[in-house]
Amino acid sequence: MKKSEYILSINPCIYGMNYHDPGAAIILDGEILFAIEEERLNGIKGSKGIFPELSIKACLDYCGIDKNQISCITIGYNPELWMKRLQLELVDIIDKCQENQEVESRKVMNRIIDSNLVDRYKFYSDYENVKNLIMKKTGIEGSEIRFFDHHMSHIH
């Protein structure tokens, strides 16, 4: 008989991993035991750019478990898609510079620097960066971390 495993599913809303409506859910054997959005706990509508710390705590408290009982963290976000998005952002910046006839390389570079494109590219080019950020923010180390396409997370 397979051992039951608690899964923590989160919408992190930081570092470009989605943007609004952060929240968390605890799943056991495919059944959602408890789920809550951060705005219900902090009173900030949409809670844009806020990591769901209160939601995670509420889930753990409601289920009567602690962080070391979480075997897997799932996130409705695919870091590989972010890399493609960054490439599209770069093309967009260059296109806008050409439209405005800002072909001077310094102006183009300043727009790229202002967009934090390089930093985001470095961050997302190494899966371990993303994994370490999630472990640090949740305080859960050693759990498996799985990413799914955001739109697939709406299926359940």
TrEMBL record:
A single GO molecular function term of this UniProt record: catalytic activity
Carbamoyltransferase domain span: 15-155
One family from Pfam that matches here is Carbam_trans_N
Record InterPro entries: Carbtransf_dom (IPR003696), NodU/CmcH_Carbamoyltrnsfr (IPR051338)
Gene3D superfamilies hit by this protein: 3.30.420.40
| Name of this protein | Carbamoyltransferase domain-containing protein
Q: State the species of origin.
A: uncultured bacterium IN-06
